[in-house]
Amino acid sequence: MNQSTGVSMSVLSNIPFSLLELAPMRQDSTVGETLQKTLKYAQHADQLGYNRFWLAEHHNMAGIVCAATSVLIGYIAGGTERIRVGSGGIMLPNHPPLVVAEQFGTLESLYPGRIDLGLGRAPGSDQITSRALNRDEKRADEFPIEVEELQTLLGPYNGFSQVRAMPGENTNVPIWLLGSSLFSARLAAEKGLPYAFAGHFAPRFLHDAIELYRSEFQPSQVLDKPYVMLGLPLVAAETDEEAQYLSTTSKQRALSLIRGKELWLQPPVKSMDGLWNEQEKDYVDNFLALSITGGPATIKHRLEMMVKQLGVDEFIFTNDLYDHDKRCKAIEILADIKN
Question: Which residues does the UniProt record annotate as the domain Luciferase-like (predicted)?
């Protein structure tokens, strides 16, 4: 092993790898089958030593079945042994903070030391669905206040509050702020909370958000220094060529998203030519600009460069391949590059 390789391996060996799950569904499958495969995928990640397995809240999206996020967190936590399980994230404007505190307090009581609460302020849906979830469209403006309310509900009893989360109180479930712009980066810095940037679908403000978070960070009882987790799309395979072929599944779903179509996982295709126009291709390429696509050497190099350029503390990957076995193989390849 040469010196440069040794240095590279040590860089990644100190970076935790985690997984962000949307419970993607094939049109020829069922919700039950999809969630059973999600559990098997999480169990495989647990055995491989991944740090976290987070589920993202989405609503009214055919092909994505993680709407009942806290229910799925319990399902995954109950079927795994070590890996932390949490939300990436709970869209707080959709839920009363008290209900979130009770749900996650219950989860933490059942699976102590393994539950994370990632919070976002987007609806996780379109405007019509958002109104169906919560008719108060101004809730997003109250996000900073509601984050503070959640911290209080999950912390020790203050001795005077008439509303208490039972269970939830004094569970101190770790709270993360998630975002794709500067708003949550600034709020996480002000509150001294860990911050996760959604580079898996919104890479535009990556550098600005991380720089803002680090420069304005205020130490807290939670953290004494900034902690950044970066979300990235992953398409890992034995070779670069195979990875490029498998990546057409993600490209087709991003294309369906911009067209307002259903988001079923589609089998990979040899070429995207004829499936999109030039403008759509540019949009999908921008959407997936941070995708880590390739064989082991390519993936390793890309991640090393990101660590050196951004100083990321942890990576969390989406991994939306059509074939379940190839999906599990992808996280084996990713885990192996740290060894």
Answer: 26-313
